[in-house]
């Protein structure tokens, strides 16, 4: 507004009334600009923070419906991999705590539809042993998934979804070394060379440049658990950290080893 006033004040106007009239118009335009900018900024801020209203509405809804005390986890990121990681982390934690009587966890999903939330829990029963999964009813202001640990006497199956035994913990370095040796021997140029697109135990995606694919490292991971939720947590974490976050240059492929899976 200062620029407008300076221009109008030092402009070459012969009539005093004209100068006042134009200055008045300049003030009106300046205030209009400021008000418009404020409205746009407010709308943008509200668009960036939908969870403010959603959190309050969900809190009221849980109180009004006498929902048991739950630990609410607000999941803003609706992207597939990030959401899957959070879901399986919650399932794995609930399965591991099934025998301790832990409180349920509610995954609040403000960025998805109720139908999509329902599709997330359409899982084989053996993949969620020790856990009960339900979605919030349509009357809820925010879609959500309730993850409840199921005690042994409640017919929920296994009471401990964690298969990691600290006393017999795997040697992850040895597992990785053997896996890389297998890739070099079986897939890369060498005795077998089953994959023409694997250059070595460290690099794959070669020979595909004409298709727009550039060579990138092979990402390796080790899961020490045998329960499916633990394996899926390791998988989705590796997808997020090694593939999605760094982009195409981060990794060409993923090899996740789960030695305990075969010994279930």
Helix/strand layout:
Elements: H1 2-9, H2 16-48, H3 51-64, E1 71-74, H4 80-96, E2 105-108, H5 114-120, E3 131-135, E4 144-149, H6 172-186, E5 203-204, E6 216-222, H7 228-244, E7 253-257
Parallel strand pairs: 1-2, 6-7
Antiparallel strand pairs: 2-4, 3-4, 5-6
Helix pairs in contact: 1-2, 4-7
Quick take:
This protein is an alpha/beta fold and 264 residues long. The protein has seven helices and seven strands. Strand 3 and strand 4 (144-149) form a beta hairpin.
> Reading side by side through the largest sheet, how are the strands ordered?
1-2-4-3
Number of domains: 3
Distance between the termini: 73 Å
Instruction: Let me know the largest β-sheet.
Output: 4 strands, mixed
Output the helix-strand order. Answer: HHHEHEHEEHEEHE
> What is the global morphology?
flat
> What would you say the CATH architecture of the largest domain is?
2-Layer Sandwich
Rounded average pLDDT:
79
Radius of gyration: 29 Å
Low-confidence stretches are 1-16, 155-161
**SS field, number of helical segments:** 7
């Amino acid at each position: 507004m200062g620029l407008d006033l300076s221009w109008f004040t030092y402009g070459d106007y012969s009539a005093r009334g004209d100068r006042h009239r134009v200055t008045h118009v300049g003030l009106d335009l300046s205030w209009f600009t400021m008000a418009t900018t404020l409205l746009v900024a407010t709308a943008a801020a509200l668009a960036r923070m939908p969870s403010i209203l959603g959190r309050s509405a969900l809190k009221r809804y849980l109180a009004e419906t006498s929902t048991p005390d739950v630990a609410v986890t607000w999941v803003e990121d609706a992207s597939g991999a990030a959401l899957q990681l959070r879901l399986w982390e919650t399932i794995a934690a609930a399965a591991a705590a099934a025998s301790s009587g832990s409180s349920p966890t509610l995954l609040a999903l403000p960025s998805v539809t109720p139908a999509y939330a329902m599709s997330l829990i359409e899982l084989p029963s053996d993949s969620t042993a020790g856990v009960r999964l339900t979605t919030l009813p349509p009357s809820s202001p925010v879609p959500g998934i309730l993850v409840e640990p199921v005690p042994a006497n409640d017919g929920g199956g296994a009471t401990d979804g964690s298969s990691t035994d600290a006393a017999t913990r795997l040697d992850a370095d040895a597992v990785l070394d053997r896996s890389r040796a297998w890739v070099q021997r079986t897939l890369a140029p060498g005795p077998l060379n089953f994959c023409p697109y694997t250059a070595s135990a460290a690099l794959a995606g070669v020979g595909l440049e004409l298709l727009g694919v550039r060579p990138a490292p092979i990402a390796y991971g080790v899961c020490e658990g045998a329960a499916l939720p633990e394996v899926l947590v390791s998988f989705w974490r590796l997808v997020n950290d090694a593939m999605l976050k760094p982009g195409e240059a981060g990794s060409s492929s993923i090899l996740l080893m789960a030695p305990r899976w075969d010994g279930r």
